[in-house]
């Protein structure tokens, strides 16, 4: 119970109530003692009136008056004259004197605590003001023990009442916490446990019902988190299914392309000049398609091969990409501008670099052709001591804001209607595999510019170039 919220709340409530009762107990006992002594002074004054009526009272009557007032002596001061009104033999010397005429609160509390813990019986002297202008001063001597016993009984009753109030208060607060906090929290926990068993089931998502604002905020936050997680799990499952389907398609497509490659080898022996010129490009395209199928199968196994770094001529790769895209553009008024040094040699995987450039140029061509107006795609390369740099620029309509926000996220950064948004993701992954970086430099109504940077050193570009 001590480890539960309601249990700890119950214990703390009892402790705090008892502390509050202690602050009430001490002043109450001090006030009880003050009232007790003032009552004895008043009784003594009333008893002394018998002397004023008859100065020659009998010893028996005097003893009876003192016994009824529970005192030993009464001294009155009137008209600056001190008069012993009633007296009897003291059983012991006076041990302490208390002045009740104008005591401070601290003095009353301190005297009350000393009286409570006093182990011995004592005779005390008490000084006060007579009531109803009965003189300047009244002084009595009395036994302290009866007052001490009365104070202890009073204090015991207060403690018992305080304990009862503490238990009742704590019990009511315990029930309130159970109803208002613990049960709703247990309900939220039960929802979380139920959701954890089947997070894909949207019926397990919590519906906020709490009336307390803080608890309702927690339920709303939990609902948002569960909704996002369920959506992510569904998307993950669909991606897994799609990955399996792509792997199967790639497997079959690889076999088809392998067969096509065999037929292309025979076409290469033709005497037709056009066939001789186009056959090598067809062979290269089919070879790349076969390699792409192999890579897709490897990606489906979460095993994208590391780039096989060799010395490759960038202008030849760009030329192959541009020739392929010119054929794809057909008669559309689209021009290509190449500014690639003929001798620029990069340390990269030629096939992977071709895929990166091809993805970017194809996206640019499709964006321009979608507008229906003439356009241009420019490819320019340069280098410095640290990196090789390839800039691909087009005069297309630019990328939508949503596409720019999710540019390198699968299935979210697509620009074309019906596009999956995988081309840039694959390109960025391949560039990162080289230790490089693919960046969107600019995208506006005047066009889009991408920059590919590949490091010359063995360090990753993120560390080498800032």
From TrEMBL:
Coiled-coil blocks: 215-242
Organism: Yoonia vestfoldensis
Keywords for the protein's UniProt record, in alphabetical order: ATP-binding, Coiled coil, Kinase, Membrane, Nucleotide-binding, Phosphoprotein, Transferase, Transmembrane, Transmembrane helix, Two-component regulatory system
Gene Ontology MF, one: ATP binding
Broad enzyme group: transferase
Enzyme Commission number, as recorded: 2.7.13.3
InterPro entries: HATPase_C_sf, HATPase_dom, His_kinase_dom, HisK_dim/P_dom, HisK_dim/P_sf, Sig_transdc_His_kin-like_C
Residue ranges of the TM segments: 6-30, 158-181
Family annotation (CDD domains): HATPase
Keyword Kinase: yes
Signal peptide range in chain numbering: none
The organism's place on the tree of life at top rank: Bacteria
Catalysed reactions, as listed in the record: ATP + protein L-histidine = ADP + protein N-phospho-L-histidine
Histidine kinase domain location: 248-458
Matches recorded under SMART domains: HATPase_c (SM00387), HisKA (SM00388)
Protein's UniProt name: histidine kinase
């Amino acid at each position: 119970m001590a480890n539960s919220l309601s249990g700890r709340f119950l214990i703390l409530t009892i402790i705090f109530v008892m502390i509050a009762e202690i602050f009430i107990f001490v002043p109450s006992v001090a006030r009880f003692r003050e009232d007790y002594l003032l009552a004895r002074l008043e009784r003594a004054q009333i008893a002394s009136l018998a002397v004023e009526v008859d100065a020659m009272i009998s010893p028996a009557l005097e003893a009876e008056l003192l016994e009824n007032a529970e005192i030993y002596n009464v001294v009155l001061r009137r008209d600056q004259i001190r008069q012993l009104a009633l007296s009897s033999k003291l059983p012991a010397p006076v041990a302490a004197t208390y002045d009740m005429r104008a005591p401070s609160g601290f003095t009353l509390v301190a005297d009350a605590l000393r009286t409570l813990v006093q182990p011995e019986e004592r005779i005390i002297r008490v000084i006060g003001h007579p009531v109803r202008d009965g003189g300047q001063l009244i002084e009595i001597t009395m036994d302290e023990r009866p007052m001490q016993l009365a104070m202890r009984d009073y204090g015991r009753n207060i403690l018992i009442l305080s304990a009862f109030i503490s238990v009742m208060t704590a019990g009511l607060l315990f029930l309130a916490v159970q109803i208002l906090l613990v049960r709703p929290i247990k309900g939220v926990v039960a929802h979380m446990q139920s959701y954890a068993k089947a997070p894909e089931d949207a019926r397990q998502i919590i519906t906020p019902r709490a009336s307390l604002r803080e608890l309702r905020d927690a339920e709303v936050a939990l609902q948002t988190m569960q909704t996002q997680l369920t959506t992510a799990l569904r998307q993950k499952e669909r991606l897994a299914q799609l990955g399996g389907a792509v792997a199967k398609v790639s497997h079959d497509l690889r076999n088809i392309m392998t067969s096509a490659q065999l037929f292309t080898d025979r076409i290469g022996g033709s005497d037709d000049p056009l066939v001789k010129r186009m056959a090598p490009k067809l062979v290269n395209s089919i070879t790349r398609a076969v390699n792409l199928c192999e890579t897709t199968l490897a990606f489906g196994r979460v095993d994208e091969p590391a780039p096989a770094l060799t010395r490759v001529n960038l202008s030849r790769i760009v030329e192959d990409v541009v020739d392929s895209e010119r054929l794809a553009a057909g008669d559309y008024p689209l021009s290509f501008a190449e500014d690639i040094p003929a001798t620029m040699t990069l340390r990269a995987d030629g096939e992977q670099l071709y895929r990166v450039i091809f993805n970017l140029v194809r996206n640019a061509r499709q964006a321009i052709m979608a507008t229906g107006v003439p356009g241009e795609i420019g490819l320019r390369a340069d280098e410095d001591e640290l990196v090789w740099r390839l800039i691909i620029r087009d005069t297309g309509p630019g990328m939508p804001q949503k596409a720019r926000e999710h540019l390198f996220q699968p299935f979210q950064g697509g620009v074309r209607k019906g596009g999956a948004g995988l081309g840039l993701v694959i390109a960025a992954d391949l560039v990162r595999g080289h230790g490089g970086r693919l960046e969107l430099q600019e995208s506006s109504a005047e066009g889009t510019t991408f920059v590919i940077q590949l490091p010359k050193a063995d360090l990753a570009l993120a560390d080498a170039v800032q």
